[in-house]
Amino acid sequence: MLSHWFIMLPEILLVLFVIIAGLISRYRNEKTPKTFFTLAQFFLILSLIFTVIFYNKSVFPTFLQNTPFITLFKSFAYILSLGWLYLSSKWFLNKNRPSGMFCSIIFMQLLLFDVLVSSVSLLTLSMVVPLIFLSNICLIMRHWDIDKVKPIAFRYAVTSLIFTVALWIAVTVFFILSSSFTYIEVQKYLASCSHNNIYVLIAVSFLVAVFMFMLGQAPFHMWFLDFIGGGVLPVCGFITLVPPLMVFCALINLLKDCLLPFSDYTGCLLISFATLSIIIGALSSNGENNIRRLVAYLTIYCWGICLISLTDLSSSSIIASFAYIITSTLSFAGVYAVFLGFKFHGEYLSDFDSIKGFANSRPYMAAALMIFMFSFIGIAPTFGLSGYMLVINNLLINSAWLKLIILIAGMFIITRSCLSIIRAVYFNNTYRSYDRPDKSVYICLFIIVTIIFLSLFNPNWLMRNAVIVIGGIG
Amino acid sequence: MTNPLMMLSLIVIIPFLGMLFVLTSKDDSAGNHHNSSNVAIFTILSNIIMIWQIFAFVKKTQSGMQLQQNINWLDYLGVNFVFAVDNMSLLLILATHIIIFGGIIFIRAENIKQKAMMAFSLLFLSMTTGLFISNDIFSFFIFYEGMLLPLFMLIGMHGDFKKNSLLNGFFIYNLVGCIIFLLGILWLYKNDGVVSMEAFARLNSKKTYIPWIWLAFTIAFMFRIPIWPFHYFIAAINTKLRNPLVFIEVSLLPLSGLYALYRFWPNYIPLEISQYFVWINVIGVLTMLFISLIGFANPDSQYRVFSYSTIYYIMYLLGIFSQNKNIFANLNYALFGFLLVMGGLEVVTAYIRRQELLHGSSSQGFLCRARHLSLIYSFLIFSAVGFPISSMFTNNFLILSQLLSVNIHMGAVLALSWLLVSISLITEMLRLKTDSKECFLGKSDDLPKDCFIFMLVIIFMLLMSFIHPLWFVVTSAN
Predict the structure, then answer these.
(1) Residues whose CB is less than 8 angstroms from the CB of residue B197 and which lie 6 or more positions away in sequence, other chains included
(2) Residue B387 in contact with partner chain A when CB distance is under 8 A
(3) Which residues of B touch A367 (CB under 8 A)?
(4) What is the rounded average pLDDT of the residues B139-166?
(5) Nearby residues of A341 by Cβ (< 8 Å), 6 or more positions away
(6) Chain B residues touching residue A359 (CB < 8 angstroms)
(7) Residue B339 has pLDDT above 70, yes or no
(8) Predicted complex ipTM
(9) Which of A153, A386, B394, B469 gets the most CB atoms within 10 Å of its CB?
């Protein structure tokens, strides 16, 4: 019995933080964003350590199961969260705003995503997904100008309600047909049922659609753009970096452990969503004047690439997707760190004109941004090349010509928008004295660029173990 | 340094490290504006010494790539960096180092921000060096594509382009070539698991997909050579550049395409494919004629240098397509001489233009007053037009005779273009040597000492390359 408590330590620690943060907010007078970050890093690191220690242990195996593959994603998400909380604390310090609630919501989200990725039951899924939607609403409401974000939150609430209903319908259909909620039982049923069963097809479509909505994939991407365009910078960064990673992991679990007999159908669905996302992401980013929204489109595009590589669910596809995720997520982390440097008179800038000539006053940050942008294009000698190379190689191995054409077309279109950022930052003689960025921004950028350089010269240190872990589930 | 195998990776790493040092150098205050160029000069000189050392380890009599070095890269795909060199690659590396060095010496005297320029130039040099020593297809691709990033940044920062579409177009156009190359590589890898360049050359061309892969590679490489219909962006960019360092670096882009074609040339080409080469010859000579006519009619000295370099690049391309062993054997020496002449000419031309702008004077007659400049300029022009004073002479003679023997009309057009570009260069020289009252430039405006010494070294190397191409190699090691 005691061992169960130990296995649940990562989740317990996440909950414990929320309680302690609440108590500090309530009773401690001298509380600053630094206080919450210090506390958060302590709990998050401990949670990460215990997640790794109990990487294959589960307390409720009927509902939740941990595997090395899940632990890989969880660890990556925790590390990213830790980094982003560190940077966010500087944002809160600069704005002189309380960060307790923000940190608590982040921890609650981590807990919910923790459950989501470990889930092996549709029942767990149907309970945790609405809670994630709810936590997203809480997150977007962390804005001092509540009137600005109210419509965004309202639109999101309505849409997420529709998707919650869709999820519940799908789960109910599967339960009625298979008399079970567990992935294994549902999979057994799907393996024996007709592939033309309209109820099953609808249920599968609904399930996939819910995940696409959570990933912010087109045509369900509007909420994501709203969040990035309207939310505060810490929320934008977190929404871009962590949730898609966890949702992606949960999607792989669902597709492999539950919907595998319908992989042809789910593959078609994924291709449709991915194609739409690549095209919309790439094209729309070209016409965008708000740099944060531009990056949001870039995110949609990048996740589209991950999905297009994933469709056949082989281990090589998952490895290719994973490699691409690592490269793009690290680049996004870097881009958001640079966004913290786009500061003028205490205000964080987001329009395109405001970054013109950025390289003249902040050469190192501009250089980092340039590296990340070229990485998105996937050009040598940047980190993005290895991600693209693995994805293209995987598509070629599978002779997936159409996907390859879509990917390459998207790549050329996205190049233009990435170049437009580089041009604005570098090829402009405008001089603007930006506020001095916090040291933490430089530290984070240095760490990210170092990881990128190390991975560039020796990608094996990052990929070798990942390949073993992912190969095990393929 | 006793281990020659380490040296190959070092000559790629040194410019890269130099770039990092440049980035950390303080170069913004008035007293420190030479720091970054000093670091760059020191880096390039160090690398030149390393290259000179490597020459000593390469056996001149042995054919094929030597001193092979393997570096693990991506185990999952089984992709490694394989480096190796031969005389051709070493000569090209040396030439690129020397001409970029020349460009930096010129830029050093300019009162402009040099830090970013030096950093990207060193990155470019690192990528170019990596390209020349790559002995497997994947690493070749990485360096081939890697040249674009620093080039795009250099052109954007120092190109003064009003239209962003041109800059974007240039980048995307080159990216298209790289993607075609990558698809070809991955297709080859999927079918044969081939990553070595030698293995590719040995592949049986009777397999149905091999000609297609070869076609993809050829098209990808042609994207870098300003031959019709691939000429627009390189020509448009190159003619608008006024910075000699950037001009030299952009001019090295066709060299990468040419070198790639040379390296990927298969051991055996079936007649069904080689019969189409005549079309490339026809397109090539027509492009040459077209560009030489523009160069002849255009009074801009920069354009004349560009038309000269383009015509020679196309001539070497035709030389490769001629499949003549003698041309292949001499191409390295010819390219070495050509690069030195082209780089030297660009630096001198940029110097004359700068003096013109600085003093608001005409440059007509400038060479009558500046003796050092006159000596350098005259030698470079005579060398450029093919006088027997550099190694270019032999190869020009070989290619021309080969094309004349294949098709007399084509050879005649090539000779005509060559003549036109030579006339345009000589006309420019004569203009500079004809004294004029509108010229306010005098003896004091002659080449600065460092530039003059550098040019003398280039002249010396050109002369020696004609007498004995590898005169500088320490033979005892062989």
Answers:
(1) B134, B135, B136, B137, B140, B263, B264
(2) no
(3) 23
(4) 86
(5) A362, A365, A434, A437, A441
(6) 116
(7) yes
(8) 0.89
(9) A386
* Residue A96 CB neighbour total at 10 angstroms: 9
Among B92, B149, B115, which residue's Cα sits nearest to residue B40? B115
Beta bridge partners of B82: B70
Residue among B116, B175, B246, B222 nearest A374 (CA):
B175
Q: Do B186 and A386 touch (CB under 8 A)?
A: no
Domain ranges of chain A: 287-474
The secondary element (H helix, E strand) that includes residue B71 is strand B66-74
Give the range among A31-35, A71-75, A169-173, B270-274 with minimum mean pLDDT: B270-274
> Strands, DSSP E only, in A93-224?
none
The number of beta carbons lying within 10 Å of the beta carbon of residue B464 is 15
Contact B326, B239 (CB under 8 A): no
The pLDDT of residue B20 is above 50: yes
Chain B hits for A411, CB-CB cut-off 8 Å, are 179
The residues facing A347 across adjacent strands are: A344
Q: How far is A172 from chain B (nearest CA, A)?
A: 42
Interface test with B, best of A365, A389, A467 (most B CBs within 10 A): A389
Most confident of A455-469, B115-129, B315-329: B115-129
Whether residue B186 and residue A426 make contact (CB cut-off 8 A), yes or no, is no
Q: What is the distance between the alpha carbons of residues B423 and B444, in angstroms, rounded to a whole number? A: 30
Q: Does B155 touch chain A (CB under 8 A)?
A: no
Residue A178: which region, alpha, beta or left (left: phi > 0; alpha: psi -120 to 50)? alpha
Set of chain B residues whose Cβ sits within 8 Å of the Cβ of A357? none
Cβ of B145 under 8 Å from any chain A Cβ?
yes
Using the predicted structure, report yes or no on whether residue B475 has a pLDDT greater than 70.
no
Beta-carbon neighbour count of residue B157 at 10 Å? 18
The span from the CA of A343 to the CA of A357, in Å, is 14
Q: What is the CA radius of gyration of chain B?
A: 22
Whether the CB of B86 is below 8 Å from some CB of chain A: the reply is no
What are the chain B neighbours of A363 within 8 Å (beta carbons)? Answer: 115-116
B341-359, pLDDT tens digit by residue? 999 999 999 999 888 888 8
Nearest CA in chain B to A395: B186
Q: How confident is the prediction for chain B on average, in pLDDT? A: 85
- Which residue of chain B is at minimal alpha-carbon distance from A425? B157
Residues of B in contact with A463 (CB under 8 A): 74-76
Q: Which member of A364, A379, A396 has the closest CB to residue B149? A: A379
CA–CA–CA angle B155, B160, B162 (5° rounding)? 115
Chain A residue at shortest CA distance from B77: A390
Instruction: Report how far residue A408's alpha carbon sits from residue A414's, in angstroms, rounded to the nearest whole number.
Output: 10
Measured between alpha carbons, how far is residue A245 from residues A79, A113, A116, B100 in Å? 12, 10, 11, 45
State the nearest Cα–Cα gap between B94 and chain A, in angstroms: 22
Give the closest residue to B263 by CA, choosing from B309, B331, B206: B331
Alpha helices in A258-357 (DSSP H): 263-286, 291-310, 315-339
Query: Average pLDDT in the A400-422 region?
Result: 92
Measured CA to CA, the distance from residue A415 to residue A384 in angstroms comes to 13
Q: Does B156 touch chain A (CB under 8 A)?
A: yes
- pLDDT tens for residues B70-115? 888 877 777 788 899 988 899 999 999 999 999 999 888 877 778 8
Q: Residues near A153 by Cβ (< 8 Å), separated by ≥ 6?
A: A137, A140, A141
The structure tokens listed for B165 are: 């579409």
B118 CA: distance to closest CA in chain A (Å): 14
Is the whole model's pTM more than 0.95, yes or no? Answer: no
Q: Mind telling me how many Å the CA of B268 is from chain A's nearest CA?
A: 27
Task: Quote the minimal CA–CA distance from B175 to chain A in Å.
Answer: 8
